[in-house]
Design brief:
Methylamine Dehydrogenase, Chain H; 6-stranded antiparallel beta sheet; 4-stranded antiparallel beta sheet; 30 strands; globular
């Protein structure tokens, strides 16, 4: 039976991650809490809006209302990487060779490991930012579509158009597909080889959480009373195929999804604080955590694939040990 080690904090949890296999919880006030031989706290941003786990360098990149970008290392070291004046940092990402990207207003920035910064300005505000899995390339979610930039060269950007407000962005792990979350209750995707569109609609709520399965065969998403898991095994992705619906509950909405690092299993968090694990092959479920105070906002697996760090909108956080 899974066991839960709770950590009750005050405020909205923006990110729950493992750094050097130590659970870290980043709250909206900019405080970073960790369970490292006791409960320890560091301060990053003055008002935290976004965070991204840079798994290649095992650090948490944070951006906030203070217009600053920080890197938080395991052990509590906090380093300021960038600043965008008085404008809020609304999205952050980490890429190859120690590069990071961040968005503020209508501008996307790429900061290279040597400290050099490159700017990409857009007609409307940048809502989401992500690195492609190969090469120094970023994708930007914006109004009416997405834009791809080559960060290290002077190449012309690629414009991917689709009417509506695009709020978040993710590349498939193989780099073949780009998917955006939208202001309406939908996902939109492009097959990058030929620009073919992929419409993923039918959600009763906005999709705020996406997670790719190992090798990118599946894309799990929130925004419904079940985790909606789209098949991406074929050359055209999910077009013409029905998604899996895992962990269906009639009286609760899925607010967070996190795919297992090596198996076709997803951890599913709900708006009442409950967490389930469900297997893609047969839909088999295991209850990992009973309902709590707030909606699950972030989850992450550890490197041994047996613990899940979770955080909620009400600050009830903790660690689930699935082996008990």
């Amino acid at each position: 039976m899974p066991t839960v080690a709770p950590l009750d904090l005050e405020g909205h949890c923006v990110a729950a991650v493992f750094l050097d296999d130590v659970p870290h919880f980043a709250l909206a006030d900019g405080s970073i809490h960790r369970l490292d031989h006791g409960h320890k706290t560091e301060q990053a941003n003055d008002g935290l809006l976004c965070a991204f786990h840079d798994s290649a360098n095992d650090r948490l990149i944070t951006g906030g209302e203070d217009g600053k970008v920080f890197a938080v290392q395991a052990g509590g070291a906090v380093e300021q990487l960038a600043e965008a004046g008085r404008k809020w940092i609304t999205s952050v990402a980490a890429g190859p060779q120690g590069a990071i990207a961040y968005a503020s207003g209508r501008t996307a920035f790429v900061r290279f490991a040597d400290g050099k910064v490159k700017e990409f300005t857009h007609p409307r505000s940048v809502e989401g930012i992500a690195f492609a899995p190969k090469g120094m390339r970023i994708g930007v979610a914006r109004y009416n579509g997405a834009t791809l930039h080559f960060a290290a060269t002077e190449g012309k950007p690629v414009e991917l158009e689709w009417a509506g407000a695009h709020t978040g962005i993710a590349f498939s792990p193989d780099g073949n597909f780009l998917v955006t979350t939208m202001q309406e209750n939908a996902l939109h995707g492009w097959k990058l080889a030929d620009g073919k569109h992929m419409r993923m609609t039918g959600y009763p709520a906005k999709v705020k959480s996406l997670s790719w399965s190992p090798k990118g065969r599946w894309l799990a998403s929130s925004g419904a009373p079940a985790a909606i898991v789209w098949p991406f095994q074929g050359k055209d992705g999910p077009m013409g195929k029905a998604p899996l619906e895992l962990g269906t509950r009639g009286n609760a909405m899925v607010t967070c999804v996190s795919c297992h690092p090596s198996q076709d299993v997803a951890a599913i968090g709900y708006d009442d604080g409950m967490v389930l694990a469900a297997r893609f092959a047969d839909g088999k479920e295991v209850l990992l955590r009973r309902p709590g105070k707030g909606a699950i906002t972030s989850m992450a697996w550890d490197s041994e694939e047996r613990r899940i760090a979770f955080g909620s909108a009400a600050g009830d956080c903790g660690v689930i040990d699935i082996a008990g």
